[in-house]
Amino acid sequence: MTDYPTGLGTSDRDTISLLGHDLAGELLGTVTFGELAFWLATQQRPTPQQLRVFEAVLVSLADHGFTPTAIAARLTYYSAPDSLQGAIAAGLLGGGSRFLGVTEDTGKFLHTALAGLGDTTAFTDDDWDAAALTLLTETKQLGRRVPGLGHPVHKVRDPRTVVIIRIAEEEGVRGPHLRLFEAIGRTNALVLGKELPLNGAGVAGAALADLGLPIDLLRGFALLARTAGLIGHLAEERVNPIAPAIYAEVDRNAVYVPSAAASAE
C-alpha cells in the first residue's frame, strides 16, 4: 500500500489530528483562526508578536467597499443564488494585479530587491533611501511600475499604511521588506516627479514577508482575508440587493457600436 505523507491533518474513527495535535482536545477553543492559518502555511506556530501583525494585515485586507471583486460576487449571487460558493469564487477569481494581487506582487518585488543588497542588518535610513532610489531608477528605466506604490482612491495617504508599520514596530518584526518599502515611499518623488503614497495592500505584503511567510503564498493570505469580506457582501446582498440595479443599468443602457472590423466590410 502506498503512503501519502502529510504534516497537516489526519483522522481515524475517533480522533482528528491537525499539525500533530488533537483537534478536539488541544486546539478547539485555544487557537484562533488567524493563528491556525499562519501555522498551517508555515508548519510553525506563530509567536504572539507575529500573530498580532498577521491578524492586523488580515483585517486590513478584508474589505474595501464596492471593488470589482465584491461586485462580481454580488452579480454572481444574483444570477445563481443557489450557489453561494460560486459567488465567493467569482469574487476571489478577480484578485489580480490591480486588486488584491498587489500584496503578493509587492512582497515578491521587495524580496527580489533585497536579495541583491546583501546584509542589511546595519542599514540606516540613509542606506535604505539610497537603495530605494537605485531600485526606483532601475525600475523606471525598464519601463515597469513599482507594485504597491499609489492607490486609485487614497491619492495622498492610505490610512492602513502607518498603522501596519506601527504595529510591526511595536511587535519587533519591522524587518527589511517594510524598511525598503518605507524608503520607496520617502524617495519616489525624486525619481517619478510626483509623490505617490504606499498602498496599504503593498504594505501588507511587505509586513507578511517580514514575518517569514512564503512569498509565493502571499496572495493566498489576501484572498483568505477577502473571503470574509465577500461573505459580508453576500449577506448584505440577501437583504439589501444592489446587483439587480447594476444589471438593469448596464443592460438598459447598452448601445450597439459596430466594431472596426465590421465597419470595414
Kindly describe this structure.
The protein has 265 residues and is mainly alpha-helical. The chain has a domain at 33-65 and 100-227: Cytochrome p450-Terp, domain 2 (Orthogonal Bundle). It is built from 13 helices and three strands, in the order E-E-E-H-H-H-H-H-H-H-H-H-H-H-H-H. A three-stranded antiparallel sheet has the order 1-2-3. Strand 2 (16-18) and strand 3 form a beta hairpin. Helix 3 (48-61) packs antiparallel against helix 8 and helix 4 packs across helix 11 (218-239). The chain is globular and about 65 Å long. The model has no long low-confidence stretch (mean pLDDT 94). It holds the Pfam family Citrate_synt. Pathway: Carbohydrate metabolism; tricarboxylic acid cycle. Belongs to the citrate synthase family.
Could you give a short description of this structure?
The protein has 13 helices and three strands; from the N terminus they run βββααααααααααααα.
Main attributes of the structure:
265 residues; globular; 60% helix; lyase; single chain; Citrate_synth-like_lrg_a-sub; three-stranded antiparallel sheet; 13 helices; Citrate_synthase; mainly alpha; Cytochrome p450-Terp, domain 2; 3% strand
List the helices and strands and how they pair.
Blueprint: E1 9-11, E2 16-18, E3 21-22, H1 23-27, H2 33-42, H3 48-61, H4 68-79, H5 84-93, H6 102-115, H7 125-141, H8 159-170, H9 176-192, H10 200-210, H11 218-239, H12 243-252, H13 260-264
Antiparallel strand pairs: 1-2, 2-3
